[in-house]
Amino acid sequence: MPYKRYYPRDDSSGRLASFVIGCCTGFAIGSTLALLLAPHRGDITRGKLARKAEDAKDQVVEKVEDLMVHHREENHHDDEEANS
Question: Cα 62 from chain centroid?
Answer without folding.
Answer: 23
